[in-house]
Amino acid sequence: MRDLPQQSDPNLIAGAEGYEDAGVYKLSNDIALVQTLDFFTPIVDDAYTFGKIAVTNALSDVYAMGGRPLTAMNIVCFPATKMDLSILNRVLAGGLDKLQEAEVTLVGGHSVEDPELKYGLSVTGLIHPDKVVFNRGCVPGDRLILTKPLGTGIISTAIKAGMAGEKAIARAVYSMTALNKKAAELMLEVGVHACTDVTGFGLLGHACEMIEGTEAAIIIDSSAVPYIPEAREMADMGLVPGGTTRNRCFREVMVDMEPGLHIFVSDILFDPQTSGGLLISLPAEKAGELLDRLHQEGIVDAAIIGRVEAGPAGRIRVH
Ligand code: CO
Ligand code: CO
Questions:
Q1: Domain enclosing residue 150, as ranges
Q2: Which of 15-19, 145-149, 217-221, 308-312 is predicted with the least confidence, judged by mean pLDDT?
Q3: Disulfide-capable partner of 270 in 44, 247, 255, 310 (CB 3.0 to 4.6 Å)?
Q4: Least distant ligand from the CA of 123
Q5: 249 pLDDT band (50/70/90 cuts)?
Q6: How much distance in Å is there from the Cα of 133 to the middle of ligand 2?
Q7: What distance in angstroms lies between residue 197's CA and the mean position of ligand 2's atoms?
Q8: What is the CATH number of the domain that holds 309?
Q9: How confident is the model at residue 21 (pLDDT cuts 50, 70, 90)?
Q10: How far is CA 305 from CA 206, 220, 252, 280, in A?
Q11: pTM for this one?
Q12: Residue 235 maps to a domain
């Protein structure tokens, strides 16, 4: 990117720089566009469920910015010569059902012939330019809330290896198809300092993005972090995705793990998530209220998992 000409546009609120979940572009003093796209290969065997996961995942980056998704377009790669078209129809039906639940309108899409099935969406939402919730902005004294359990990376790996039990699959699918819509609405009502969604870099990877280059530090209480129980047993069997090691290598320089923690703590905190929960930083005095309201709305795994401190700058300590 170094040799490419840089753009500057006074209306660009969040762009390709930094780690923001979506682009934000101001249209007027009252309204800005929130735009994102995401697509990937199937992570579950059922085509309809895969469609629902892809939509839940694609919408999540808009919710993580505090935006309201409005329209979406399908992105499809399909191996028409070796796969039955009915499979694609099931994927798209799952996607459409999830869009309807989210009250987002499908306005089109594009498909190409490809050796491997891939599905996702580009999503457009709206937001007030002054109400964007950035990844950065956590304040010493804040509490951190995570709204979904970790472990979907481990369970997806187990599914691919044919080692995942029905209960584990059901729990992972439930989590990956749960919209972050309600959590985002409650977050906006209560008022927060920062938010991102936990996806491919794992909890610690995305927590690092929240404080990298800032003066703040994060303390994570590993015993408070929610995870899908079956993930532990599968990790013990070695069903840890390759992405976990990549995430750890990339970010371990910022992270201090308390000596003596079980290896599973590192495996689960760096587990790459698909369609993960929101990681929210908010004032301590509001954390209990948001947590109660999340639980009342059925987001029962939501938990306070740590806090923000004044330093050491850009460090995460896990105990
Ligand atoms: Co994101
Ligand atoms: Co994203």
A1: 143-318
A2: 15-19
A3: 247
A4: 2
A5: very high
A6: 14
A7: 8
A8: 3.90.650.10
A9: very high
A10: 14, 6, 19, 10
A11: 0.96
A12: yes
